[in-house]
Amino acid sequence: MTKAGAEVRVPPTDWEPQVWDPPTGFGQTRRERAARGRAYTSAVPARIADLRLQVPPALAADAEDAAAEIARFDASTEHGLGAITAVLLRSESASSSQIEQISASARAIAEAELTGSGKPNAVVVADNTRAMTDAVSSADALTAEVIAGVQRVLLERHSPGLVGWREEAVWIGGGGSTPVSADYVAPDHRRIVGAVDDLVAFAARDDLLLLPQIAIAHAQFETIHPFADGNGRTGRALVQILLRSKGLTRTATVPVSGGLLTEKSRYFDALEAFREGDAGPIVRQFVRASLRAVDQGRQLAARTIELRDTWRATVRARSDSAAWRILDLLPAHPVVDAETIAREVGIHPNNVRRSVAPLVEAGILVPSQHFKSHKSLYRAPSVLDLLDDYAAEVGRRER
């Protein structure tokens, strides 16, 4: 039965009985042994492919305004701010990970992206960036294969055994290693394929308001929880895929996760309300997060451009020097090696040291060595500080 007083009515999640029957093994606590054979309930996601969606006029107007702001921001990155698109994508990936208490410094993340190794959290966030990059650049529409592909890129390096649709129970909360006392138990794994196909059909519709459609698709994905790990990060990557495939964005990654992070508890409450039959809170959170994301994105863009202008006034080099092209590379690649510079700028590797010399002399680049791979690198501290400041600012705004 739909939640009484629901702002945006959706069919609520149903429930079915299950019995906890885990594999026996050593190292189980007394509480875990006692839970064996006990009953619990798992979710049965409502079908939404043919959902008749009715959004109140005021909320619909807010959603349309937010969608228009996203489109305007994307257009600004396409005409003159293209250099910051990678900065936006990196910040969105970091914020999405931060929602799940996975964080690392911008330097550690950039080094992990470049070397493929590093501190565990940094590698996880770097993989999130790679998954989001691949998804938004190649997905014309949301499909089951695209969803599975995002999760594969997220986990294939550090948790390959968890890649793919799960075949076990997963749950949220409860403070234990059994679903018996969990706050939420995701659907039985045998329901996943059908539920994902239903979600994909809903996402493919072209008769709905875009932002409410994207918010509901995201909430439905989180309800299905089709993977053993990586559901939250995959679900937020799907938001970027839908923004792109629906035509709201063409070049920019709008940092929606940063907007959600500022009201993380409300975001989780909204997902719970959706399961109870009211999509109003999650639509409203996406409207607020989108508007906040555009504001944050514009600030990040302005700071990046200001930084680039400061560099150009500082560097002393010939007008035809490769140093200027390297300078333009740094917002997207705040940690680089000689091979990356040579490839991206189009110079011979033997000329890299001479080309970066003016930037090192100006303090824009600092030579360093990666602690794990011992690879020689150059880092741009001011870009890394910019990203760290953004992450700290977004995190502090949580309420």
Automatic annotation (TrEMBL):
Keywords, alphabetical: ATP-binding, Nucleotide-binding
Query: Which Gene Ontology molecular-function terms are recorded?
Result: ATP binding
Q: Which InterPro entries match?
A: Fido (IPR003812), Fido-like_dom_sf (IPR036597), Fido_containing (IPR040198), WH_DNA-bd_sf (IPR036390)
Q: Does the keyword ATP-binding apply?
A: yes
Give start and end of each Fido domain: 142-289
Residues engaged in binding ATP: 229-236
Family matches, as Gene3D superfamilies = Fido-like domain (1.10.3290.10)
Annotated active site = 225
- Region Disordered, as annotated, extends over 1-32
Superkingdom: Bacteria
**PANTHER family for the chain:** FIDO DOMAIN-CONTAINING PROTEIN, FIDO DOMAIN-CONTAINING PROTEIN DDB_G0283145
Identification of the protein by name:
Fic family protein
Instruction: Write the lineage as a comma-separated list.
Output: Bacteria, Bacillati, Actinomycetota, Actinomycetes, Propionibacteriales
